Amino acid sequence: VIDPISYFLVLLKASLFSTNGTGNLPTLHEEMIAREWADEQNFVESLAIGQIGPGPSGLWVIALGYLTYGFTGALLASGAICIPALCILGINLVYRRVGDHPATAGFIRGVSIAIIGMSLVIMSTLLLNAGINLFNIAMVILAMILGSQPRIPIVVTLLIAGIAGMCFYGGLL
Amino acid sequence: VSTTSEPNALYAPDLSTAEPTEKPNLLKLLWIWFAIGAQSFGGGSATLFMVRRAITEQHKWMSEEEFMRNWAMCQIAPGVNLLSMTVLTGWRLAGIPGIIVSIFGMLFPSISITILITIFYATVSEYPLIEAALKGIVPATVGISFLLNLRLIKPILKQSKTEGSFSVYLSIVTLLLCTSGFAYFRPPVLVLLWTTGCILAAIAWVRYKRAARSAS
Question: Per the CB < 8 Å rule, is B132 touching A170?
Answer without folding.
Answer: yes
